[in-house]
Amino acid sequence: MSTRTAARLGNFALAALVLATVAGGAFLLTKVIWPGYQKPSSRMYASRFGFAEVQRARGIPFSVQTAPAQMRRIVTRQLGEGRVTAQPVRVPIVQSARVKTVAVQEGQRVTRGQLLATLDDTLPKLAAESAQLLVESAQAELERVKLGSAYTLTQERPEKEGINLAASRKQIDILQERHQSLEKLFTQGAVARSQVADSELRLADAQREFQSATLGVEVSQRGQPQSVSIAENNLKQQQNILQQARVALDECRISAPADGIVEKVLVQPGEYNQTPGEIGFVIAAGLWFEAHVDQTAIHKVTAGSKAQVQLEALGGDALEGTIDRIVPIVTYSTGGPEGRRPVRALGTGTPEWPTTFSVIINFATADRLRVAPGLTGFARLESARDTLAVPLSAITSVSSGRGLVQTFAEGKRVAKEVTFGDESDGWVEIRGGLRAGELVAIAGHEDLQPGDRFTAVPTTR
User: Fold this and answer.
1) What whole-number distance in Å separates Cα of residue 45 and Cα of residue 34?
2) Domain 62-87+286-461 has CATH 3.40.50.2300
3) Residue 46 above 60 pLDDT?
């Protein structure tokens, strides 16, 4: 290679190097240095010769992005340890009778209404049959009272008394006509005085019978409804006795009052239940998860919300559940004041004893077959509510649930102190200090100084 050719190649390499250096510098300037120079979060931005000072010197207004305070769905999530719990249901044997059969064993799953045991029902059957006969007799007696044929109610037949009263009235009319005729004949000397006296005596007897019949009708009319009422009450009483006998007969079949697992079987076939109400079975019913959640979440968890339960026995398979209720009683579930040493060290600024409240989580019906009382694990609780919120970037100078936001109205910028709560998906709950619709700065406001010119640029989020 000649000296001239080597010199040309050297010049070409040098030119390529210079061009590459210039290109790299341009790339760094346009893609790294200049964007970083304009970026408010960079240390260079607010320096003495930073982009912000250049803008102020040139009178260029700062661009500030704003968003309105608005109602948003805030979702909070909590964790709580706990275990599967059941409610012990004691099943009594009400009747005093001999145990005939026992249909379940300890550890067996049962459903509501499933047969647990039977008792000897011979005597209850006889009692029910006798009660049925007494009801039929009372019904027949009621019909006899309404007809007036009951031998004990001879004075309470208004129809019969009405017939006697009508006959007495007719008899008086006849005797009065006869007596008047005899008095005329007596004045004419055609009959003796004794015949007139005998007529007066018969008329007086007929009048007495009429008054007695009148009284009989009145007494009968008043007494018959009362007699019917007595017969109806007797029928009702016999029907009640029959119902009691049937209940006693039904109680010879002991059934499960709830779904669950048979925890204890306290009777055996052939035994005699001497004491009415003696406990024969204990069923672990319910099968829910009781999670112990930190006291700070007592107002963040709501009934009806969804939850996931992770049990140690099921590995990575999470069970879906629903929060049934919240027990708003804070207790010392771990360690506790009765322990010898605190769970948290003294002087850390936190409670010495962990304080929790209980959240009851119901499983789906199919999942209840997979769990057993006593299984341990933890629950993920999720609760959602609609509340006033702003983007998280709007809040600065955060301290103990308080912070500052920059608000914009009528071309003016005002710093306001707000109280905030939970955060969800880049939004934070505002509990006080702002009204719905107020514009707040969410970007470009971090290094604004009093007197800086700015342009509010609305953004939709």
Assistant:
1) 10
2) no
3) no
